[in-house]
Design brief:
about 210 residues, CBS-domain, 2 domains, 3-stranded mixed beta sheet, 5 strands
Length: about 210
């Protein structure tokens, strides 16, 4: 944890928000006080780090494809750039959908990873598919026929906590950053969030080390 969050001392507003979040005004016991203090600390940390906006952590520019791009061409981009998803945009860079590795595998008839399958079962089905389709070529149909049209996005004015909540609520690995007209400005993945955490952690450690000299 960085020095910023370690020094986030709860204020009255944090306790008020924490108490409101518990949705109760019953007699408070020790357990309730401990929970209240923990929640107040969480709100204090959020208040301190609220200045981390999505534009500070998003990756840009974003590699995107048009609706007419073939699935074969899209798959090559995924492999070459080592990414797992491509936004599909129109000529004005407005978001139309997204195509992912899972969509590409489904287009080939390869079962995508299911929650009930282990990763080994998923890999086994993929290799089994390759064994029976040794000379298969990438499909030439356009990505528009396979893309997901409902894409999870956040606005440029939102912060890192909004991104975390959005990812958790929708159970996604990435969110696109778009303006009100759906122009794609950037993308944020779980890797970006981990990078920000460790960047702040190491900066906080270095700062603490300097103070102790």
């Amino acid at each position: 944890m960085s020095s910023d969050t370690e020094n986030a001392s709860p204020r009255r507003e944090d306790y008020e928000r924490a108490l409101a979040s518990m949705n109760t005004y019953m007699d408070i016991e020790v357990h309730d006080l401990m929970m209240l203090a923990e929640r107040a600390q969480q709100f204090a940390i959020r208040r301190v780090t609220a200045s981390i906006g999505v534009t500070q952590i998003m990756s840009q520019p974003v590699t995107a494809v048009s609706p007419q791009t073939t699935m074969s061409a899209a798959s090559h981009i995924l492999v070459e750039q080592r990414i797992s998803g491509l936004p599909v945009v129109d000529d004005a860079n407005r978001l139309l959908g997204i195509i992912t590795e899972a969509d590409f595998l489904r287009a080939l008839g390869v079962p995508a990873h299911l929650p009930t399958h282990s990763i080994w079962q998923t890999l086994e089905s993929m290799f089994s598919h390759l064994a029976h389709h040794a000379g298969v070529q990438g499909p030439d149909d356009p990505v528009a026929e396979h893309m997901v049209r409902e894409v999870i996005c956040v606005g440029e004015e939102q912060d890192v906590h909004d991104v975390l909540e959005t990812m958790k609520r929708h159970r996604v690995k990435r969110v696109l950053v778009c303006d009100d007209e759906k122009h794609v400005a950037g993308v944020i993945t779980r890797s970006d969030l981990v990078r920000i955490f460790f960047d702040r952690y190491t900066q906080g450690s270095a700062f603490s080390g300097q103070e102790s000299d």
